[in-house]
Structure formats: C-alpha cells, structure tokens
Design goal:
The protein has 460 residues and is an alpha/beta fold. It has a domain of 239 residues. The strands form three sheets. Strands 1-2-3-5-4-6-7-8-9 form a nine-stranded mixed β-sheet, with helices on both faces. Strands 10-11 form a two-stranded antiparallel ribbon. A two-stranded antiparallel sheet has the order 12-13. Helix 3 packs across helix 10. The longest helix has 18 residues. The chain is globular and about 65 Å long. The termini are far apart. This is Alpha/beta hydrolase domain-containing protein. Keywords: Signal. InterPro entries: Abhydrolase_dom (IPR045394).
C-alpha cells in the first residue's frame, strides 16, 4: 500500500482529479427568511403583482443565502470535449445572496422537483428567463422554482434598487458564482423550510444565454466535483463557455462532457443556432433541441419582464422594451415546457427525451427558409407548421441597447396569403390540429399546451 500510494498520487495530479477532488465549499450555507414587508415589500424580479400566484395555488418567498465560497482556476488545456479540471484559487470568501422561492401553498402538491435558475444579468438586473417561459408548466406540475442571484451585477443591483431589503447582500466577484450555485442546491436539500417542509427528489439547474455560458462551465468543471444537481437545462447557449473566474469569455468551443453522469438538455432558439451549430450534441446523456421559428427572447417572456420592470425600475427607469418591428411571438414556451418535463423524467432515471432534427443550415451559418421565410427543420411547433406569419430570430432599434437583436420579429401574412393557405377558418383549424397532433405524438408538446393551443385557434 505504501509503495502504491506515490503512483496513485502521481496519476491523480496528472489527471486533475486530486486537485478537483478537494474543491468543495468551506461549510454548509446559512438560510435566513426575508420578511415579506422588508424594504419595498417584494422580491426584485419576482412575481408579486405580475402573476396571480394565489389563483394557481402558489406562494412566493425570499431567503438570504450566506456562506463562504472558493474561487477556482483552470488546470490544463480546456478542450472542446468539456472534460475540464480546475483547482482552488482562493478559499473561504464570504458572500450573502438571495433566493426567490415559488412553491405550492399546499405542500402536499409538491412534485418533488425543484428547478434552480441561475438568474440572467446580461442587462444589469436579475431576469428569470426560464421561469418566464415555463412558470405555467411548473405550477401545473407542482414543481418548486428557485431563482438564484449568482453574480455580482445582480447582487449590486438588488442593493441599489431596494437597500432596505438587500443591504446585507454582497457578492464580491463573479468568480464566487460557481460555489454560490452549488450552495443553492445544498441549501435546497438541507433546508425543508424552503420547500414548505418537504425535501426534493431531484434538483435541476437551469440557465439562459449569459447564464447558459456559465452553466456550461459549471457542468463541465464543477458538477463532476460537487455533484449537487440531478440534471441541467442549458438554454440559449453559444459555442463558447464562461471562464472559471471573472470575465465573460472562457473556452471558445465547448461541448458538454459525455461522462457528466447526469443528463443535460440543450434548448436552442433560431437566434442561437448560428452561434452554436459547431457544438451540436445528441448522446446518451446530452440532448439538443433547436426550435424553429423562435427567438432568443420573445413576446411572451417580454410581457413578464416589462411588468416586473415597471414595478422595479431596474432597466430604462421601468419603461417597457420595444423594437422597430413586432417582437417574435412564436410559442417557444410549449417546447420549453416539454423539455423540462422530459428532463425531469430523465433525471429520475426514466427514458431519454426524443431526439429532434436540427434546424436546416448551410455551412453552419445560414438558416434555410421556405417561401414564407420560415425556417426549415428543427422542432416544429403547430404555430409554425400552420403559420399565419413569418417568424425571424432578430429585430432592430428599440429603446434598450442590445435587446432587440435578441427579440426576433413577427411579420403577419397578407390577407391574400392567408386565403391561399386557409380558404376558411375550419381549414385553418384542421391544419393546425394536424400539426399539433404531430408535435404531441413526437413529444415536443405537452397535452395541457396542446389543449390550450387548439382552444386558442378554434375561436372564430
């Protein structure tokens, strides 16, 4: 044994497993409830006054999460296969952040599934993108949602918007974000009061756009060490990943490592595929869906952002975001709801999600379109296969710098084109229903969303 030990240590050092194996958080984080009437009386970027949670049998609560986090640095060359190693750069860094918890008011309704979202800070304030798309699915299913302020920009904005509520919040550097996100999962598992007295069966990590870049790095470098999430929803990613420390850009090309041990779902809009086609994956533990006709963000999500922003005044002094053209209103949420349902089952040891054809592209750069200028290939939602408009991935102009390039456009068909496609309303409903049946049978549409879609188009 003594003779073998030096060899074991040498192999571990070369592989990075010994370095990463000690990269655990210093101690379990502490959770403190935020009084409902603290400060202005609501969570910034939360649902109060935006959604009628009570009518859905849900409540919103907020907690401070305090702990001591490590920062990390890269070990070796981070190649595009995602098999990355890291080591501790600094240890025992104090932080305090917040968690926004949306849970069933009756704890017996809890499904056992918790979705923890790495809140997006691309516009300088926390934005709950995945909640904005899939809150209906979460609440129908009895899932619990936890929004996690993981980054410095989000924490600083909380304090500036409501110092009476968030005076103790402090994240000194984005380099702490990875341990903070791990601590959030640990707190969810260790503190039943967060979940109405219940404990989770699975905890899923999600993140969109800038957060998806950090989730990619988290999955490849941190999850193999901390092992605190049961699966990942990585939504709206580019081919690159975030650095393990501060900054925006890390590895320029990054697939999800195939030995992750838990499932990862990559969910992409049309806006995203031009920037991610080089890292497309479908493996036993990685599934990619590219949803045709959709944009990086859309009107459905924007409706929630605008309402929350009018209340919080976090962006542009609360003014509603607008663009030169009508924003994309394709029903991306239907595909995201189905993706979350599949990921939940997959993380519990069930069947993998169905595969999907990628969006059709030339040279990985140009999306191929039909005569109406809608994309070919990809996940096909009924609103695209029985279209009444052209749906594009980008917009322009507007009153928030950088936003409209991500929000896409909707260009209604002319009355003549509508008549060519659908001589009467009954024909339209029949074609839409056939498209909805294909999506439902393929696994890309859930039955409650199918029912909503059919009811919506059946109205004269």
């Amino acid at each position: 044994m003594r003779r073998a030990l030096p060899l074991v240590l040498a192999v571990a050092l070369m592989s990075g497993t010994l370095v990463t194996g000690v990269a655990q958080a210093a101690a379990d984080p502490a959770v403190t409830p935020v009084p409902a009437n603290a400060g202005k009386g609501w969570p910034v970027s939360g649902a109060k006054g935006v959604l009628d949670l009570a009518a859905r049998g849900y409540v919103e609560e907020e907690y401070l999460l305090s702990g001591r986090a490590n920062t990390y640095e890269q070990v070796g060359n981070w190649t595009d296969d995602g098999r990355w190693n890291m080591k501790i750069a600094t240890a025992d860094n104090p932080y305090t952040t917040r968690l926004v918890v949306v849970r069933p008011s009756n704890p017996s309704r809890f499904s056992g599934t918790v979705v923890a979202e790495w809140l997006n800070v691309s516009f300088g304030v926390d934005i709950p993108v995945d909640f904005s798309q899939s809150y209906e699915h979460f609440m129908r299913s009895g899932d619990i949602y936890v929004g996690v302020t993981s980054q410095k920009n989000g924490a600083d904005k909380l304090k500036s918007l409501d110092p009476g509520r968030y005076s103790s919040v402090n994240i000194s550097s984005d380099a702490l974000s990875y341990d903070i996100f791990s601590d959030a999962a640990r707190a969810i598992r260790a503190n039943p009061q967060l979940l109405g007295g219940r404990t989770p069966a699975v905890v899923l990590g999600s993140g969109h756009s800038q957060s998806a870049l950090r989730m990619t790095t988290y999955a490849n470098a941190v999850q193999p060490v901390h092992k605190v999430y049961n699966g990942f929803m990585i939504h709206g990613r580019a081919a690159l990943a975030a650095p393990i420390g501060d900054g925006v850009v890390g590895a320029l090309s990054a697939k999800i490592r195939t030995d992750l041990g838990v499932p990862a779902f990559i969910l992409q809009a049309e806006t995203d595929v031009v920037f991610s086609s080089s890292v497309r994956q479908d493996t036993p533990l990685v599934r990619t869906w590219e949803v045709a006709g959709t944009a990086h963000a859309d009107q459905f999500g924007l409706n929630l952002y605008n309402a929350a922003n009018a209340r919080d005044k976090g962006i542009n002094n609360g003014a509603a975001t607008y663009c030169d053209k009508p924003v994309n209103n394709m029903t991306f949420r239907y595909a995201e709801n189905a993706a979350f349902a599949h990921l939940d089952r997959w993380a519990r040891g069930g069947a993998a999600p169905p595969t999907a054809a990628p969006i059709t592209m030339l040279f990985g750069l140009i999306i191929v379109r039909d005569g109406d200028q809608n994309a070919l290939g990809g996940v096909r939602l009924p609103d695209l296969d029985a279209p009444v408009a052209a749906y594009a991935p980008n917009n322009s102009g507007g009153n928030v710098a950088g936003a409209c390039g991500l929000l896409g456009t909707t260009t209604p068909f002319t009355p003549d084109r509508i008549r060519q496609l659908y001589p009467d309303h009954a024909t339209y409903v029949a074609k839409f229903t056939a498209a909805a049946n294909r999506a439902l049978q393929g696994g890309y549409l859930l039955k409650p969303d199918y029912d909503e879609a059919i009811a919506r188009v059946s109205k004269p």
